Amino acid sequence: ELRETTNHILFECKFSSAVTHRVLRDVKLSAPRGCWRQWFPRVTTGKTALAKARRRCLAAVVYFLWQERNSRVFHISASSSAE
């Protein structure tokens, strides 16, 4: 069984990686090459409309993936990354 790390949940799992990369592409970001903890503040800091949109989109991704994770863990259902 895989450990549930932030990197796994956001970038390594096939399902979540597809979702995360699609949203990152939509807000004109590329996935972090190194540590996400250094990447996240750098791309979401600021008061511009783009920085605000990035924060909202990334928060929505985290929320959606957490819901999906819980659905899978508790065997409620599983979604496809295209949904």
How is this structure best described in words?
The chain is mainly α. The chain is built from four helices and no strands. The chain has helices at residues 6-12, 14-26, 36-44, 49-73. Helix 1 packs across helix 2. The longest helix has 25 residues, at 49-73. The relative contact order is 0.15.
What is the number of E strands? Answer: 0
Radius of gyration: 13 Å
Helix tally equals: 4
The shape, in one word, is: globular
* Gap from first CA to last CA: 26 Å
Overall mean pLDDT:
80
- Bin the helical content: 55-70%
How much beta, percentage-wise?
A: under 5%
Uncertain stretches: none
Largest sheet: number of strands, sense, barrel closure: none
Q: Which sequence of SSEs, written as H and E, runs from N to C? A: HHHH
Structure classification? mainly alpha
